[in-house]
Amino acid sequence: MQRLLPSPGPVDERGLAEAYRLPGGRHVRVNFVAALDGAISVAGRSGGLGSDGDRRVFRVLRALADAVLVGHGTAAAEGYRPVLADSPVGRLRTALGSRPTAPVVVVSRRASLAPDAQLVTDAVSPTVLVTCAAADAGRRAALAAAGVQVLVCGDDDVDLPSAVDALADRGLAQLVCEGGPALFAAALAAGVVDELDLSVAPLLVGGGPGLLAGPPLPGPAAAELVQVLEEGGYLFTRYALAGPAPPGAA
Length: 250
Ligand SMILES: NC(=O)c1ccc[n+]([C@@H]2O[C@H](COP(=O)([O-])OP(=O)(O)OC[C@H]3O[C@@H](n4cnc5c(N)ncnc54)[C@H](OP(=O)(O)O)[C@@H]3O)[C@@H](O)[C@H]2O)c1
Description:
Blueprint (H helix, E strand, L loop, with lengths): L1 E4 L3 E2 L2 H8 L6 E9 L16 H13 L2 E5 H6 L10 H8 L8 E4 L10 H4 L6 E4 L5 H9 L3 E4 L7 H10 L4 E4 L3 H9 L5 E7 L19 E11 L2 E11 L6
Parallel strand pairs: 3-8, 3-9, 4-5, 4-8, 5-6, 6-7
Antiparallel strand pairs: 1-2, 1-10, 9-11, 10-11
């Protein structure tokens, strides 16, 4: 892999972790892989867009995070499992001096996580569910009884700023959010995203949807390009985000 920006040069495995390392403090970064046309999946899964380099970046971002934040739609579509110590991410975490496991935090307005899902039954760091008071109380209780940490943030809908606060209070201050497009759109609109790490695959797929689901943002969110890596025609970008512009902004 090579760095194109800011300073051109080769990037080895240690350099890759350094390229994505964060200073201390709260931070939410969103990681996506997209095709040149903006498509984020092939036959409903992101795997068809990936490359070896994309998987290494994915692992580094997980290894550097306190927790993995994901919408229930993505967790279900991609068959999410816990981050275990005896896994490539767990071993990388250990090598980088982090705790070997990290919780997966599932965001679901309806508390849709199934109590017998692997994210629940196989978790070592308990899986966290972020939901709202309107979610079925029986579902919430069943998940809590199965060992899930249930965080109720908001009444009729999930209040993402409150959720990020509650996670930071639990020592989960640096989050990698792996989407999907509904959660990314809501997180951007709520102003809780600090960074977008977008891998651009040299593929054209068609069919949509893109990175953001739902209605347009109140205004375009400006992104500052801070880093570009390249391998095999894939671009691995880091953008700093300033939050959405106010309604009516050009
Ligand atoms: N290329 C990539 O990097 C990438 C990354 C991620 C996902 N994807 C793809 O995206 C697709 C999944 O899309 P998706 O829109 O279903 O993903 P999603 O955003 O992960 O899931 C949507 C669901 O998550 C919950 N959710 C999301 N945002 C929420 C919020 N603000 N408040 C409360 N609940 C929230 C809701 O669950 P409930 O209905 O349970 O309330 C909602 O129905 C899959 O095909 C996946 O492969 C691709």
